[in-house]
Amino acid sequence: MQTTHEPSGENLPTLPDRGGIGDEERRLGEAFRTRYASEFRELVVRREVKNPAVTLVVVSYRAGDYLLDCLRHLRGQTVALDLPYEILVADSGGLEPLRSRYGNLVDVELRLRDGLPLNVARNAAMGWARGELVAYIDDDGLVVPDWLEYGVNLFRDETIGAARGRIVPHKHPWYNVWAGHYDRGDELWDEDNVSTEGNMLIRRAVYLAIDGFRDDLYGGEGLYLAYRMKRAFPALRSVYAPGMIMRHDYCRSAREFVWKSRRYKDVRKNITGIEPEFDAYMAVFDARKKPVKKRTPTEEVVLAGMRAAQSVIARMPIFDRVKRR
């Protein structure tokens, strides 16, 4: 039975913590909820999962039917009958037309202030997530059936603090040629980065302890998160996990490519100078040799054309008029 909880005075509604949670994680979770209380609107519990091992968070804003496809893939995991996990939609607005169609695809709706910046919504969601492990999944990403099984088994290695998955094309393969970091091949790799923030899994206690994503970043936040983790927990690793596969397109149209070219053109400039130690971390990361998937001759031609187009787009402010969709 669905229940809706709204704030009462200074008290924010929550679900019971999972069994065995540590005192520090509990304290930090409460602190996150307090920090983002002004962004909270209501908590809708469609199904309460007892002691979830994992929380799968989908942050969404004004989504279409692709959100339902995303949720179906999360619900249909190979471990669905063996592992208690909850699906939490962090609703940043515009999802009203879809809510009546969720059915059993959503366990918890965290309804937030309309139009929140992505990392603010992610951090708020972590406050209400309850799993020992928490995933962030793009609302238009389709994970493979054994995504969660692979991820949970990977985290049996206690040296792994965070993992990001592999992204393969869905409907528009040429745009993913531009995003060479999406697919680093078939081998587990210590990346020291969380470069696909919408296809990742992290220990909740670690995320809370390092203060999560920076609210003000849009691009580069995964690298900064990995830096924070390495600084606070030097023994923990941030890895590329090739078995956490998601079908997802870097762009779904030429319009979106133009928008992203403008949106991300200053990412490195924006994250440089945050902290001298982070600048040094970036320099070491940039200098490292990285696994590169071999491209076909056609892909090389496509990439050259996209580089030329991006160079023009990045220099011409008139393209700021282009909307994402």
Automatic annotation (TrEMBL):
Keywords, ordered alphabetically: Glycosyltransferase, Transferase
Gene Ontology terms for molecular function: glycosyltransferase activity
Region Disordered, annotated ranges: 1-23
SUPFAM superfamilies hit by this protein: Nucleotide-diphospho-sugar transferases (SSF53448)
Name by which UniProt lists this protein: Glycosyltransferase family 2 protein
Similarity comment: Belongs to the glycosyltransferase 2 family.
Domain Glycosyltransferase 2-like: 56-205
Annotated PANTHER family: GALACTOFURANOSYLTRANSFERASE GLFT2, RHAMNOSYLTRANSFERASE WBBL
Gene3D superfamilies: Spore Coat Polysaccharide Biosynthesis Protein SpsA, Chain A
The organism of origin for this protein: Polyangium jinanense
